[in-house]
Structures are given as C-alpha cells and as structure tokens.
Design a protein that fits this description.
Length: 366
C-alpha cells in the first residue's frame, strides 16, 4: 500500500504534483478562470458584506494560513488575520456578520479548530472551511467547504495536505481578487498560468532528493537547526522546522530573518545548521545580509534560492535552487526540499517516520 516507497511520508511527498493538479483542475474552468467546486456557495453579494477575513488552524494548516494571509491581502486587497485555533477561541476576537472565517484542517476533526469555528459562527461569521476529509465534522458544520484533493494522508507529518491547502489559498485569493475588482485581467491570467505550471516545476524539485539525502546523511547528528526567511519564506520556514522536529526530534526553530538580531542570533554556533530561504526576489538582498550575519558566526548555511541567483553561493555552504516562479508561488516549491530533508534526517537517525512518538494524526482533544 506504500506503492514501493519505504514510508507513507515519502509516498505522499511524491504525490504532491498530482494532488496539486487535481486541486487545480477541480476549481478552474476551461478558460482558466477560478470556478470553485459546488460546495462553495459564497456569491458576490455575500462577499460584498465581508470587510475582513480571519483564518484559523493548527500546526501545518496554520502555516498554510500564514501564506494565505499574504496572498489574499496582496491579490484581493482585503484585510486578513491569521490565528492559531487554541488562541483564537479564548481571546474574545473581533468577529461579526461582516467576517469571513476560514478554517483550514486536513482531518476536519481537530478539536480546537472545530471549537474556534463554532465560536465564530456564534458571533455571526460566515464559515468557509478548507478540508481534506469529505464529510468530516468541520466540513459538516461549515457554510462553504473547499475540499483539497490531496487524497488520504496517512503519515502523521503533513505534506501533500499542506501543498494542496496552499493551492486553495491561491485560488481563494484569485476568486476574492476578482470579486473585489482588485486585479487586472492580465495579472489574473498570468497568475493562473504560473499556478498551472507549478506541478511540472515541482517534479523537477523532487529530482533533488538524492542530493538532499546525501546532505542529510552528512548532517543528521547536529542538534540545532534554524530556518530563516522573509515574506512567504518565513511561513515556509515555520513549516520546514515543524517537519524536522516532529519526525527527527531535532531541536529546530524558525524565525523571520529580520528578527534574528533582536535576540535569536545569540544562539548561533559553529555546529548550528541554518536553512536560509532566499526565494523572494524582492527581498533577496535583505536575505543575503541576514545570511552574512549568521555566516559570520560560523553557522553551516544551506540556502534555497530561485535559479539564476548564484551570487548566494559565496555566502553559503550549500545551495539548492528551485525553478523560477512568482514570489508568491515559491512556497509550493520551496517546502519540498525541507520535507525531504526532514524525511532523510529522520531516516538516518532511525526514527519511526510515519508514526512519530507522542503524536497523533488527528488531535481530537484540546
Ligand atoms: O487535521 P488538521 O489539519 O486540523 O491538523 C492540524 C495539525 O494537527 C497538523 O497539521 C499537525 O501539525 C501535523 N502533524 C504537522 O505535520
């Protein structure tokens, strides 16, 4: 049932190009326009009542929400907040009938996400959920359900659910941008084209696996790993860090690169590994400065950049390149080397990858 792979996690990593294609084709029409699946009923009139969006989730799904905030605000020009479900539900948040509440959950059974959603409903919000499991509790209790087409995800560490959640965020951003008349026809078409080209590029990223495995086999015994980035790279940094800690039990930490010098840089030592995500063209020079800061403390730097930005090699111990795409879309590509790194480090350490200690696939207690 693992289809020839050693673990479900690896199988699911490799299923991502297909899962992304499925999620796109369910929600795009023949003219390349977003046409959301019939379980999303939200109309232009409904949307006109909305003055803000609140995205709530836990764990990996929360990390998808962080990217969602970035792209929805950028494309649709509507304010978006993102919160962790266990925080949102106890803080008496500003939510009313003008709020669109978006819950993101692979399982659709996460207790905190469900309760946060019920709280938002009580306050009058319209609830749209991005869910993988058909007929799950979150799906049943939502006004609109946007299903990710990831297929069953068995490994505790979420991979293809995350990338399909990201696809839903991009599709929602385009859908809202259109309703809000915030995007030109040309920008819209261009974004859709780049989105459709992503799964092919992801197939190229997967070809890096042997190199990443070799790197993991060299560095698996390090006990401190940092992930830094700016813009959407900071959100991907959180996800990369979570993947590594949950399956390899290595102490890892993610931080927005600009925050380093406000405290965390004190932890840098020669044996520290830093994954420096530098895929944002707009912020590339800023990231190079951050990399130089950590390099000066003799940390081991593994950089990730878009093809063509080879000047980063002068400041890094290793560099991996992702195919070129829009800054907003890089998370779909850049997360994959981080998933593979976590996987191969855990494998080198002999960890139980699909069922890590202390964790359950769906967290139905708070
Ligand atoms: O089923 P959900 O998406 O609601 O689950 C949320 C988190 O429990 C989940 O993403 C968790 O963080 C994963 N183990 C991460 O790989």
């Amino acid at each position: 049932e693992k289809g020839g792979y050693d673990h479900f996690m690896l199988k699911e990593i490799y299923e991502q190009p297909t899962a992304i294609r499925e999620t796109l084709s369910r929600n795009l029409d023949d003219n390349g326009r977003v046409h959301l699946q019939e379980t999303v009923q939200l109309t232009k009139e409904d949307f006109e009542k909305i003055n803000k969006i609140v995205i709530v989730a836990c764990g990996t799904a929360y990390h998808a929400g962080l990217v969602g905030r970035y792209v929805i605000e950028k494309l649709a020009r509507i304010p978006v907040e993102v919160d962790i479900a266990s925080e949102f539900r106890y803080r008496d948040p500003f939510v009313d009938e003008h709020t669109l509440f978006i819950a993101i959950s692979q399982s659709g059974e996460t207790a905190d996400t469900l309760e946060a959603m019920r709280e938002a409903k009580r306050k009058g919000a319209r609830v749209l959920s991005v869910v993988n499991v058909v007929g799950s509790t979150v799906a049943r209790e939502s006004d609109d359900v946007f299903y990710t087409q990831a297929g069953p995800e068995i490994a505790v560490a979420s991979t293809k659910a995350y990338t399909t959640q990201l696809v839903c965020m991009y599709l929602l951003a385009l859908f809202f941008a259109d309703l809000n008349v915030a995007i030109s026809a040309e920008e819209y078409d261009n974004f859709v084209q780049d989105l459709e080209a992503i799964s092919g590029k992801l197939e190229d990223v997967l070809k890096m696996a042997p190199e990443i495995e070799a790197l993991a086999n060299r560095l698996y015994d390090r006990d401190q790993v940092f992930y830094i980035g700016r813009g959407v790279d900071s959100s991907v940094a959180y996800e990369g860090s979570l993947k590594l800690k949950e399956i390899s039990y290595i102490n890892s930490f993610a931080i927005a690169a600009g925050e380093l010098k406000h405290g965390t840089i004190a932890l840098m030592e020669p044996r520290t590994i830093v994954w420096a995500l530098a895929t944002q063209e707009r912020l590339f020079d800023k990231m190079v400065s951050n990399i130089q800061e950590v390099k000066a403390r003799n940390a081991h730097i593994i950089s990730l950049a878009q093809e063509g930005n080879s000047e980063i090699e002068a400041h890094s111990d290793e560099v991996f390149y992702i195919p070129r795409t829009k800054d907003e879309l890089t998370p779909l590509l850049s997360v994959v080397p981080l998933q593979l790194y976590a996987y191969y480090v855990a494998k080198a350490k002999g960890c139980e990858i699909d069922k890590p200690r202390n964790l359950a696939k769906s967290v139905t207690v708070e």
